[in-house]
Here is the input.
Amino acid sequence: LLPAAGFVGLLTLGQLTVAPVARAWVPDLAEEGRLGLYTGALSSVSGLIVLLGSATSGRLLDSPLPPAVPWLVLAAVPVAAIGLLPRRD
Here is the structure.
């Protein structure tokens, strides 16, 4: 139970860190007069990702794989996301 609680804590900390930053970028990225469209798109895509991610995670955790495999796959998702972040030169 302790590893799962730690993982949930890390996910929560990540969400608390990333969500405000993503919302703060929207005005910088939005075209003139399209802030509402960009904000709505961010919220819609975020909700869709949560929906698909939860369904996929549930199936993965209910699969007959060894217990460590689903958690390793789930841990690989944020690691892959880090690789997609833009680099500063």
Summary: The radius of gyration is 16 Å. The CA atoms of residues 57 and 74 lie 7 Å apart. The mean pLDDT is 90. DSSP finds three helices and no strands in the chain.
